[in-house]
């Protein structure tokens, strides 16, 4: 029987309190009424025409740094190296979203609205639970972009390499599990949309939904927004060629997918998720 250290367990909880901005790792988090994690994607930015201002549409957002107090009651917003010298500001979180809108408006040089929701602003409103990825998956992806990588075609010249932590920042998953091989989390969704895979992390019940389709954000440097040319093509090719036998291939209409989207029932609201919790398939 494997030791507890070798069994699937939660090794990292990363909240992104302001959608598209920096994360914070926390030791525990509560399930919100929507099934996500409390204070994850709690603020979202909009232009006056109602469109998102996020990493998908607005690469300049990567230049903003958001640093949170350990209790998540304050956020410090800054733009390191900004020639316009936009002042660093500290805002109460999550209550001061209207005040923060003025700071964002100055940075983007247009009126920005900041909205707050207790339920957060998930990308997938049907499977609105936390996204799950394994440490081994992120490690594999980082290795795909190193200059020397045994077992895979050599990276095109110009790939500078991606560290494990940078892979985390690029793919922005909420929950990270360890004690499993790469892409183990593909077991958490079924062969078709109607099939349900149920599992527990600690005492919280989850349903796996689908492999998460990726957007224009992962090819961009999370600190500068600079695009790594060829990222999506190389990722897609290697994701397909290394797809494990347990991955439900029919769910991959394309292979630019990483991490598993989940659903969490309202019955789990306010339950606590902690780093170290075991993951058990039902």
Q: Which key phrases capture this entry?
A:
282 residues; alpha+beta; four-stranded mixed beta sheet; four-stranded antiparallel beta sheet; 15% helix; 25% strand; globular; disordered N terminus
How does this model look, in words?
This protein has helices at 97-108, 135-144, 164-171, 231-241, and strands at residues 9-15, 24-26, 28-30, 43-47, 65-68, 74-78, 89-92, 112-116, 132-134, 175-178, 197-201, 204-213, 257-263, 272-274, 279-281. With 282 residues, the chain is an alpha+beta fold. The protein has 2 domains: 4-17 and 123-281, no CATH class; 43-116, no CATH class. The strands form 5 sheets. A 4-stranded mixed beta sheet has the order 2-1-10-9.
Largest sheet: 4 strands, mixed
Count of the separate structural domains? 2
Give helix and strand order, one letter per element, not per position.
Answer: EEEEEEEHEEHHEEEHEEE
Q: Alpha-carbon distance between the termini?
A: 18 Å
Question: What coarse outline follows from CA principal-axis ratios?
Answer: globular
Low-confidence stretches: 1-5
Q: Total number of β-strand segments?
A: 15
Q: How helical, in percent, are the residues?
A: 10-25%
Q: How many helical elements? A: 4
Task: Give the averaged pLDDT, no decimals.
Answer: 92
Strand order of the largest sheet: 2-1-10-9
Structural class: alpha+beta
What is the strand content? 25-35%
Radius of gyration: 19 Å
């Amino acid at each position: 029987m494997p030791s507890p250290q070798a069994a699937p367990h939660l090794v990292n909880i990363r909240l992104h309190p302001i959608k598209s901005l920096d994360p914070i790792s926390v030791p525990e988090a509560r399930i919100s009424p929507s099934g996500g994690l409390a204070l994850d994607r709690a603020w979202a930015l909009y232009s006056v025409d109602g469109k998102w201002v996020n990493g998908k549409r607005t690469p300049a957002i990567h230049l903003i740094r958001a640093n949170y107090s350990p209790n998540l009651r304050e956020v410090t917003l800054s733009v390191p190296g900004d020639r316009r010298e936009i002042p660093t500001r500290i805002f109460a979180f999550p209550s001061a979203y209207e005040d923060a809108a003025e700071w964002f408006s100055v940075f983007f040089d247009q009126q920005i609205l900041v909205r707050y929701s207790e339920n957060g602003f998930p990308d997938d409103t049907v499977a609105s639970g936390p996204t799950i990825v394994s440490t081994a998956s992120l490690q594999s992806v980082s290795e795909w972009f190193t200059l020397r990588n045994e077992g895979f075609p050599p990276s095109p010249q110009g790939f500078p390499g991606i560290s494990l932590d940078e892979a985390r920042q690029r793919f922005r998953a909420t929950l990270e599990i360890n004690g499993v091989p790469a892409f183990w989390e593909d077991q958490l969704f079924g062969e078709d949309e109607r099939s349900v895979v149920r599992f527990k992390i600690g005492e919280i019940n989850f349903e796996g939904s689908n492999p998460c389709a990726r957007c224009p954000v992962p090819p961009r440097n999370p600190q500068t927004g600079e695009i790594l040319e060829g990222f999506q093509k190389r990722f897609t090719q290697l994701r397909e060629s290394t797809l494990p036998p347990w991955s439900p291939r029919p769910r991959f209409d394309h292979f630019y997918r990483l991490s598993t989207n989940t659903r969490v029932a309202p019955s789990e609201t306010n339950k606590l998720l902690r780093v170290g919790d075991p993951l058990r398939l039902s």
